[in-house]
Each structure stands twice: as structure tokens, then as C-alpha cells.
Design a protein that fits this description.
2 helices, alpha+beta, Rossmann fold, 128 residues
């Protein structure tokens, strides 16, 4: 399958701080089911701190959650909002016109979410 190299997409890095609320971070998590997943994050990974995974709908981005993420972190959560497969700054999927769409099936999206949570060292989330 063809992949779009990150070097061919201008601005593929994380969001700059000027675009994000204070306390929010933008970063990438590599090797999540073959993807480089872009994640917006508030709060921190600390023992016994619950995690919230916020998944956007169609046609949205992780950025859609920016107004609720900081208040949720202030309430005691580690909050993660990824750009899902095929959206935003997440890369690693084929964008060819005639590509097989099997990777975009719901089961694979669930696998992506579980892989991301696992990459952060969590075994469960409090809410999705």
C-alpha cells in the first residue's frame, strides 16, 4: 500500500501552542497498528489517575474536543483525544483512490483505540 511520507505534507508536526488552550499538548504516538497517531492530551499519566479517551465523529478531528479537555483534566482525568485513522495529522494509511477500505472498518478503529491506550500504558479507560 502507498503511504504519504510525512515530509510531503507541510505542517504535519504537532499543533503549535498558539493554537491550543493552556495546559493542552499535541504529540504523536508511533506504531499503533501501523499508524503514527496524532493525539491531543491534557492532564498527566500518574498512578491511579483515570483516563478519558475522547473519539471524534465524522467529519471531525481531535481538535473538536479542545474546549472540554482542560476542564476534564482539572477534574482529575488524563484526557486523550486522537485524530482517528484517515483524519487530521494521523498518518500511516493509504490515500490511493482505489485503496482497500478494510482498514477503515469499525473493528479496526476499535483496535486503533485499544492500541493507543496500551501505548500509554493503560489497561482500561473510564469513558469513551
Amino acid at each position: 500500500m502507498a503511504q504519504i511520507p510525512d515530509t510531503l505534507i507541510p505542517g504535519i508536526g504537532p499543533y503549535s501552542d498558539e493554537w491550543l488552550p493552556v495546559g493542552m499538548r499535541s504529540r504523536f504516538v508511533d506504531k499503533v497498528n501501523g499508524l503514527r497517531v496524532h493525539v491531543l492530551e491534557t492532564g498527566y499519566e500518574t498512578p491511579n489517575r483515570p483516563v478519558l479517551l475522547l473519539l471524534h465523529g465524522f467529519p471531525e478531528l481531535a481538535y473538536s474536543w479542545r474546549k472540554v479537555m482542560v476542564p476534564l483534566a482539572e477534574a482529575g482525568y488524563h484526557v486523550l483525544a486522537p485524530d482517528l485513522r484517515g483524519y487530521g495529522r494521523t498518518t500511516g494509511w493509504s490515500s490511493d483512490y482505489d485503496t482497500d477500505l478494510t482498514p477503515f472498518r469499525m473493528l479496526n478503529k476499535v483496535r486503533d483505540a485499544i492500541g493507543l491506550i496500551s501505548a500509554f500504558g493503560y489497561r482500561y479507560v473510564d469513558a469513551v
